[in-house]
Amino acid sequence: MTRFIDEHRQTYGVGSICKILPIAPSVYYAAVARQKNPCLRSQKDKELSDEIRRVWNDNFCVYGARKVWHQLRREGRTIARCTVERLMRQMGLKGVMRGKGIRTTRSDP
């Protein structure tokens, strides 16, 4: 949405475009400010994501969030476990689960 406003702001202006679109001008300006100066958390997340992916790949893509967190602590990185969980979820990384899958019903032959 911000890209559309950026393309047409010289012709129509931000206020008139935002009247037609269902957003407030303050939302547009906040999004532009975030793009120019990203917050500290997003900058740190990018660095940590690279570390998490490296640890996960080094261990044959079988480590879950808990083991990745422990490995990062052994390497001297201080990071919260919930942060590792959140970033692994965003990147789509999962550990391998042991055992058979859950079986809820048994068919009657």
UniProtKB/TrEMBL annotation:
Domain of life according to the entry: Bacteria
One Pfam family assigned to this protein is HTH_21
**Residue intervals of the HTH-like domain:** 45-100
Q: What is this protein called?
A: HTH-like domain-containing protein
